[in-house]
User: Fold these one by one.
Assistant:
Number 1:
Amino acid sequence: VALYGSDSALLQTTTHPVNTTSSELNLSPDELQRILAAPNQLTLHPIQLNSQAYQAAYAPFQFGTQPLGVIASFLPDTVPAITQTGQQLGGLSLAAVAGTAVIALFIATHAFVIRPAGQVTQVAQALQAGNSFVRTGMKPTNEIAAAGHALDQYADYVQERQDTLRASLRRQRRESEYLMSVLESMPDGIVVHDQQGQIVVMNEPARVLLGTQPEDKLGLRDLSASKSKSSQPLAPGLYTLGDPRRLEFDGHMINAQAAALVNLSDERVGTLVVLRDITKEVRRDQLQEAMLKWMSDEVQLSTRFVSHAQQMPSLINNVALDLAKHSGAIQKLIFEMREITMPDAPNLHESQRPLYLDTLIWVIANEWRQIASAANLGLEVLIEKRGLFVLGDERRLRWAIGNLVDNAIKYTLPGGKLTLEVNGESDGRALMRVRDNGVGIIRAEIPHLTTRFYRGTPRTLEGDILHVPGTGQGLYVTKQVIQAHGGLLQIKSKPGVGTAVYFALPVTASVSYELPILSHEFDLEGETVRLKRDNL
């Protein structure tokens, strides 16, 4: 047997006679092409090998339709040998076909089953090892490819979720860093507790106040344990818990306010406590109170002296009466300084109640009408919308609005006019105005009018300076009282034309009880009254 390649070269042979040369077995290219051209025929040729006649039988050797070469069999030149040669070549052809089929089946199995399955396995192992970017790249053309395609889709989904999670974590980290920078920049101490009362965040001012030890030195857990949160949030997810508390610690007075932290599901997730060192303010108030008490005692001493002096001759008696008058004014000033200059005092909210605005305005007008008349000024009340109620401390509001009327009287020349007005309601606030046609205020002084102890230089149209006594804190305290009630205040003025002070107070619901009705003949000084509406 001999095997020839597609280029007619002898590849291998089983004949090993000693004197046989390869030239005796050569097959020309033309003969090779004739044999390949007849794939279903057996080509016979006589051949001499070692001077002995042989019959050579040639048949194509191919894989599918692709010719690989020629296979040849050499037998002695006899009839039985030729028959035997045909049988052998037929068997060889069948064996070649069977081998070819096996090889083709193996190649197909490897191409469509083993290799894709191995690829899917490798990708799954790589994903398990943490390489989230590897993919099979298969199209769902069969079951194994469909499994690989599904694995790619799942890997893409997991990768997308991981990218989203990473982006969210980076954003949360940036927001957390920004929040911490904001907390560290705040002058007040900030302490955040979780639901178990453990401190999770504390800024530097809080560490300065409390020290670095995490133990609860101020009873902050008691503040955090409060369950009653306000109905209106200070900010989204932040509700106050009770009223501020004043605590004493290590020689300091600390104001502490707790607030509940609430998530989007309205579930409480923690507590924020704001700490403010008010030691200086408390000491200043104590010194101020001591000074006012001393002044009050001194004035009372002078008043007792004046009461004895009234028994003296008439001239001294008149002086004594004048001193008594001024002593009373000074006592009133001391009282107002003590009570009115603290609009944020704890008892401010306790003394608030719904006030009928019409009555409040008329009471203030009647309080100042005689003083306006003595200064040859007209005082009018204009109420465009009736029936409004405001929530406030009546005594402080009467003082604050009365101070505006007092200023209008002081800086309006005789023969002038001033009005006390209620101009309606806007954005939940009652709009009011005190207006006069006095000397007015230059534009440069207006921004400073509500600065404590500031006093301007009012002038008439002729340039004469008006000398008005005062301490320079009336408008400052008035603004503090208005703002403590949740209101606003604005001043507009023009020299030679007059001044208008606009202010607004939050309105509230009416009350069921009626204030007592008082006749016009009663002295309204210091009284709370309600006039008949028919007479307004």
Note: Confidence is low (pLDDT under 50) at residues 512-536.
Number 2:
Amino acid sequence: MGRLLWLLVAVFLYSAAAAIANVAAGLYVLDLSGSRFYLVLSVLLFNAGFAFSSLVVVHVASRRLSGHFVLAAGLVGVAAAVAGMAFARCVVVVAVLNLVYGVFAALIQPVAVSAASRVGGDVAVPRVNMASSLGIVAGDGVAALFAGSIGVQGLLIVAGFLAAAAVLPVLYGPRVQAGVRGYPSPSAPLVTGRARYTPPHVARSSLPMPACRGGVPWQVYAGTLVLFSGVALFFSPMPAYLREAGISDSGIYLLSMEALLASTVAYELLRRLELGVAVAARLLVAASASRVAVFMLPLAGFGGFAPVGAVMALVYLLVGVTWAAISTGLPLLALRLGGGEAGVGRVNAFMSFGLVVGSLVAAPLAEAYGAVATCAAASALAGLSTVFFAVASGRLAGCGNTFKASA
């Protein structure tokens, strides 16, 4: 446990830094430019850097360099990029630093999870997940408390300091071998639209062979691409909309914390279940169908039909619950039907590409037409993804595999 503890401390500190920086980076772009376009552009660059790094750089680097070095380099890179934003006065420079931030951020969790599993076995992975969740909650809490007094620039400096501090336990902790085990799937954090890794899943099948052959239906990949395009469309400009609606920066961090807590509770309930392949597919259908309505709900608050604070609290509660279903169903289907870890890697690619496409479309749409356009477009994409998932669910109706997700 002593060797693992160093890694857990590093994961906690980094997760707190990322929770603060992911929101503050976008808010600082708004402070400098006052433009939704530049806000979404910064998210697009972050997602592009994260996607490239998670799909290419992390695997190449982990084969050629020690995991210990990759993890430390990732933390140093994040610290430099985030702290650099705080001292930049040009929105273009801040946007480019978001790209750098994305590249280095993608290096950290795969190597940390791999190191934890080598040090403590698969039972260590839930501890990494717990350290990450606690770090995010702590980061959101600190930011909510101090956003009003130190501002977003101060928050970026704090985030950079925390990421730099995470290097120390890495230097004094156990040496990490090269190589990355598994392909953790990226997700869109619930307020910012920026990619990050979900908790990695350890799936234990109750059957030695799959009941359905032929791999993951192509409709699952198509639905993933479309759904995550909608996710990025919805969340990338959301900090601007929330500020315009009168929600404070502290309130934005509290929404992020609420969504994380909701998804954590829902995931804890789901992971205790023995899910069949068909049930996991139906879970995806239900979650994506729910997002059709969830993505339209903010318009009730922004349009003055209901108190905006209450509406957004409901939105992020539902976002957290539905994300738990998505982040359970997709990896389990990919693991069981798509060739194990390589199958999750393919889903990872479609998620990453969807986030980039969604951010790319959101930039001009948010600037020209605002929340009505981006919310409606995101809702329509969620509806289209539901159709794809429903077709896949019909094809998998006879699959009886059961497996338990624990993470």
Note: DSSP finds 14 helices and five strands in the chain.
Number 3:
Amino acid sequence: MSDSWLPDRHSSHIVDTQAKNILRITLPQEWLLRELSENDYGIDFQLEFVSSENKIIGQIAAIQLKGTASSKLNGDDGRHNIAVRTKTLQMWIGYEVPVFLILVDVSARLAYVKSIEHETRKTPFIYKRTDIEKVAFTYSSYDQLEPSDLPRQYAYAKRLRLLDRELPSLPSLHKDFHRLFDERYGRDGHMPVDGDGPYDPSRTHGEHKYERQIRSLYDRIHRLSNLLAAEWDVPTIDEIVNNSAWYSKWGSEMYEAQFSVAMRHLDAKLQQVYVKLRELIACYREHWMHLAPELVSFADSALPALTELTWQERKAVFKDLL
């Protein structure tokens, strides 16, 4: 029988198989790469990260794989475009876990990666359009996949999602902190803050009024600080109470002097949070202008450290909160 009567294996299928094999070789062998072979709707693999101690840590990313016979990405000026259906991209944006679009150049045996969370925020006016059928992701040599950096990209993608939900609350936190600072900072240090004894969260909510407020602010600032990757070096409220008492007879009750110490720590930390906020807004300004324009305006405004202002300067700041 002549070979012309036999079926051919299409070159694109060969490239797909080579791309899968190269991806498996490129990623650490201890990671779990599960192929989704049934009813592929824009996700080819689930990638489960494994710790350096070979522990399953429950961190899963989704991968869409694209192979090419030659991407011409070896040079610094090389570019390669991948067209993606808009409907597929919208699905990726709402996907349960972060999605990575990976391109494999089978001739160079190199892989390149795009984080969907990062790319769609960097240029949302391109990637969040719904009036066009397809959008293109442009790869360069700078997108070469470094396996050791992929867990960081994954964590960052998850953090971007959390920031979308939680960062718009920062102006409200700012106001709550300023109001408490205006009301309680610098009072007579010898006086108890609430006069209800050592802090006990199980007691009636009417007790420890101001200590509850500063502990709540502490937790809120701590959480946003972590999300913005600002170093957290603020002692706990309990540490401040235990280590900054003027007299031993104060025991475990919070006094005004300790309250002011806590406010100074949080005031300084908020300055670092504002720096990180401005860096984030600078990177994804169009995204935040669409999602939370009031947050962009907040970031663009003057946000001085209250402890560095005179009493008159603080009054001018507090007046703006009314």
Note: The chain is about 45% helix and 15% strand.
Number 4:
Amino acid sequence: MRIFEIHIVLGIFFLQSISVIADTCFSERLGYPCCKDNKVLYTNDIGNWGIENGNWCGIKDTDECQGRDGYPPCQETKIADTCFSERLGYPCCKGNEVLYTDNDGKWGVENDEWCGIKDTDECQGRDGYPPCQETTEVLYTDDSEWGVENDGWCVICKKESFPYFYTKILSKLGGKKNFAYSPESLNIALKLYEEFLVDGEEKKEILNLIGNKNYLDYKNSLSSKIVNRIWIDSKKKYDFSSVVKMEKYLYAIDMSADNAKEIKDAYVSEVTDGFITSTPTEFSSKTIYDFMNILYFKGKWNKDANNFRIKNIFFPFKTIDGKESHATSIGFTKKNGYYLKNDDAIAVNLYYEKEEIENYAGFQMIVILPNEDKSISDIDIRPFLPYDYEDEVTPAKLKNNFDELYFEMPKFSVETEWFIKSGTKEASLFELDHFSGGSLNRNIYNASISAEISQVVRIECDEKGTTAAAVTEVHGSAKALPKTPIIFNFICNRPFIYVLYDNVNDDIGFVGQVMTV
């Protein structure tokens, strides 16, 4: 569009810092008219700019806005937050039902006419300009970062990065409650499901979420196991010839049988040693499939690394609401220890017993305690994780300028259950706006399908160790110097984050928040 071409010219002149001659309307010398109004939409080294009749125009710089050089002050222009479609000759929608999306933005239909849906998400563009699809090169910065694609300006979206995404999930789904979920289990279940989808928006969004890891190659350890199963109906006809490699996960039962859910729940209980005994999904004659992942971990604390003991006196804990509660705590005192620190939080690694055939445990726990002026949703967890993010993040600094590390936190347990359904806020939270189940390869089973995702998580942490399980279904260190010991107290007496990290597969098995005890 012409307006994109104008933006490129503006960018060139901005970079070259072309001067403006005072006795003329500066924009005329650049091939653009003077504005009749004085509404400033854009400012660079050249001057102030507005838009009239869909084209850029220059706004004369006067103290009283009474005009200049024989030209009157501007009378009309479009406001900066107008929706993009008005520049293309279409009105703004009054509602927000999206029927079509292209590079310009999101579209709906009202009064039998296409209309534009005003952007509410910073990653949907700005002031009528679309989000960049591929480029990340920043050519101009104001309140947003701008790049150029297809001869036009576009907004470089600041998408939720890895850490904020996970803590955002905790904040949005958990609120002020204790909450935990399993990114690893969710990703594995979605990978199972994705293998059966035809190309389309649903498949694309799932791959954007889970990345290119081959989750189906994840391994078990002696203390943890990953089990995948695809439940199908023995009374229905399927054709799995296009996904032969997935047949090993298939398990057929009579979905309409009265005991179908019992069979499924008994399997879950068996895999998790009775830790989780049921899931909320029901089987019936309408059930086409149930893609299931089970992640289970049970580990004892490594007494050489952290000799946990129980403290039966009441442990004061300041809840998310600022109230003081009391609980039984667990903790340890350790010489030659260390903790991790950055500007936002401190963290400590808690280790489990090592595997007999490995030199490390299947999991470790990282407890992250935000500074008192920070909330859980503010925290970037990456600097505290063992994963190598190369140049993406600055690792937290290791602190060992003390003789002993005294650590204490409350015992805790959590059970959570949550769902993702098409069109819900949970689907948008995970950026699965096209998740519906409708992209199942019709060669496998030709039917109209509505799908949902569910996850059940249970975690218990005490002085002995930690047990954690998740079931996801897609249905449809220091050297002592001073004589007086220096002791660093790491006391989790306010809301904190914990991560159960899967060392075997380099992934986040579970992430949770403790808000109250």
Note: The CA atoms of residues 295 and 308 lie 25 Å apart.
